[in-house]
Each structure stands twice: as C-alpha cells, then as structure tokens.
C-alpha cells in the first residue's frame, strides 16, 4: 500500500505539477490524480481497473512517481493542509548523504546563515523541506536568510527562527511559485515595499508600539493593493471613529471598498468625489464642526487604548 497526501478535492501543489510536467509520463500523471481523488491511498489492482491500465503499467507509473519523490510506500503521507512535510528519520538523512547529495553543503550553509548548529530534529525537518518541496538550493538559502532577518526584525538581535517557521515560509514560497533567484529577489523587493507602505498606514492609524495582527495586516494589505495611501486611511479613520466611537476595522474596510469602487484613492479625490459624510453624534456636533490637530491626536490615543483592551 502506498500513500499520498489526503485531500478533499483534487488539488496539486505547484512543485508537484512541475515535477509531473518534467516527467512527461501520462500514466504517472493520471495515477497521481486518481490517488488524490481516492483520499491519498490505492491498491495497484484497483488503480489498474479504474484507469484501464495493466498491472505492469501501474507498477511502472508507481516507480516513476516514487523516483520523482511524489509517492512513497515507507514514509507517512505529507500533510499539505497543515504545511508540514513528511516525517523522515536519521536513516533517511544518512542515506541521502551517502548518495553524494548536495544536502551536506546545504546544511553547512544553513548553519552559517542561522549562526547555530542544527539539532537532529532540525536536520530531519530541514531534510523534509529539501526533499518534499523541491526548492532549488540557492532559493532555499535565500529563504533561510529572509527568515533569519525577519526573526531579528520582530524579536531583536540574537533571536533565531525555528525550523518550523522556516518550513511554513517554504510552503508559502512554494505556493507563490518562487523557484529561482530572480523570483525570490522580486518577492523580497515586494515585501520591502509593502512593509514600508504598511508602516505609513500604521502611523495613520495611530499604531506605533506593536505589529499588526494577522487580521489587521490583511485589511491594510488589501487597502494598499487597492491603491490607497496614508492620507486616505486617515480620512477613513476619522469617519469611522465619528460613526462608531472606536477603531472598527470592518466598518473602515467598507468605507475603503466604497471609495475604491468609485475610483477615489487620494485625499483630494475623496474630498471632491465623496459627498457623503458620517453623521456625528449630538455631543460631537455640539462641541465642534471640524476637529483640530489636538482633537485628532486625542482621538488617536483613545483608539489605541480601545485597541489594546480588545487585544
């Protein structure tokens, strides 16, 4: 009995699709898809009957998939949904090193980038990343350097990313189709630009002393993708606070999407093209007609307190 990742639907990862295309083996591709449809496991007899192939043709397809690393009878199935590679053993790594693989050189380079010696558990996890995702060695090293830099940026110097974090990032790069140095460099430039723009939007939102949560980041990145800048976000924040009395991400997102549909992305466009104004509370109306700089800063401090309490 052989195994593949359990799947609810027929979904092939980018690396698996590339491997199948390189194989150029129609029977192997057909068998791979059929196994995915059957919850990741099969018997040669059932496969032969279902695919109208002989037993010998199925065995040949199994051998081709196994040689390409897409099918294994010895290792547990890879859990793609959880972004986890298959579980390997020290014996698997020993066999790889004895076969003259470049994995040993890759390990040395990875340890230099991370500034530490990989534990046996790290080595097993790292081998899974190397063997299952088929990222080129130079791309994998670029990824490790990126993970190390991100860890230092978030948690300070001296912190080292876990191999689990590197594994999850490797799956993300694989889904992005990053299989060359050019792909990796283009991705890292995009991340840098996005980080800079996100910093400006965080300032507009009055968030200074923490990173955005995952949900907050999705909102902010979607606004950046729509073409908004910090000035537009400040206007949306002002209207959201007046309407709801707090930093309501969902309400603010509805404002941004409404502007996007109207083609309004800058402060000037919004002030000119969006005649709708948020209704002020009686207290706000009585106190002022337009907030001054001190009032806006006071509102931001209030929103930060509300945000901290919600967290």
List keywords for this structure.
mainly alpha, elongated, 311 residues, disordered N terminus, 3 domains
Brief overview, please?
The chain is mostly helical and 311 residues long. The protein is built from 16 helices and 2 strands.
Can you put this structure into words, describing what you see?
The protein has 311 residues and is mainly alpha-helical. The protein contains 16 helices and two strands. It has helices at 14-23, 26-37, 44-51, 55-67, 90-98, 103-114, 120-133, 137-155, 163-176, 181-204, 214-226, 230-244, 249-262, 267-273, 282-287, 293-310; strands at 2-3, 41-42. It has a two-stranded antiparallel ribbon. Helix 7 (120-133) runs parallel beside helix 9 (163-176) and helix 12 (230-244) crosses helix 13. The chain is elongated, with a radius of gyration of 26 Å. The protein starts with a strand and ends with a helix. The model is unreliable at 1-9, 73-81 and 278-290 (pLDDT under 50).
Helical content class: 55-70%
What does the average pLDDT come to?
80
List the uncertain runs: 1-9, 73-81, 278-290
The number of helical elements comes to: 16
**Using only CA atoms, what is the Rg?**
26 Å
SSE pattern: EHHEHHHHHHHHHHHHHH
């Amino acid at each position: 009995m052989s195994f593949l990742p359990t799947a609810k639907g027929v979904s092939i990862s980018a690396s698996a699709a590339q491997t199948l295309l390189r194989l150029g083996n129609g029977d192997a591709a057909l068998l791979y898809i059929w196994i995915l449809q059957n919850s990741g496991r099969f018997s040669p007899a059932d496969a032969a009957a279902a695919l109208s192939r002989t037993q010998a043709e199925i065995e040949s397809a199994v051998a081709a998939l196994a040689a390409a690393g897409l099918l294994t009878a010895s290792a547990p199935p890879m859990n793609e949904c959880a972004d986890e590679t298959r579980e390997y053993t020290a014996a698997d790594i020993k066999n790889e090193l004895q076969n003259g693989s470049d994995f040993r050189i890759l390990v040395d380079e990875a340890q230099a980038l991370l500034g530490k010696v990989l534990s046996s558990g790290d080595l097993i996890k790292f081998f899974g990343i190397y063997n299952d995702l088929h990222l080129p060695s130079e791309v994998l090293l670029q990824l490790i350097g990126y993970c190390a830099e991100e860890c230092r940026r978030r948690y300070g110097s001296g912190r080292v990313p876990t191999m689990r974090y590197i594994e999850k990032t490797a799956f993300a790069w694989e889904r992005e189709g990053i299989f060359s140095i050019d792909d990796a460099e283009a991705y890292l430039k995009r991340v840098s630009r996005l980080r800079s723009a996100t910093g400006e939007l965080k300032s507009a939102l009055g968030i200074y002393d923490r990173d955005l949560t995952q949900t907050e980041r999705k909102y902010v990145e979607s606004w950046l993708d729509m073409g908004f800048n910090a000035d537009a976000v400040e206007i949306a924040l002002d209207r959201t606070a007046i309407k709801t009395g707090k930093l309501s991400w969902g309400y603010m997102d509805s404002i941004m999407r409404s502007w996007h549909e109207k083609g309004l992305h800058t402060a000037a466009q919004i002030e000119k093209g969006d005649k709708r104004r948020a209704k002020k509370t009686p207290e706000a109306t009585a106190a002022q007609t337009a907030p001054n700089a001190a009032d806006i800063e006071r509102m931001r401090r209030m929103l930060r307190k509300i945000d901290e309490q919600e967290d």
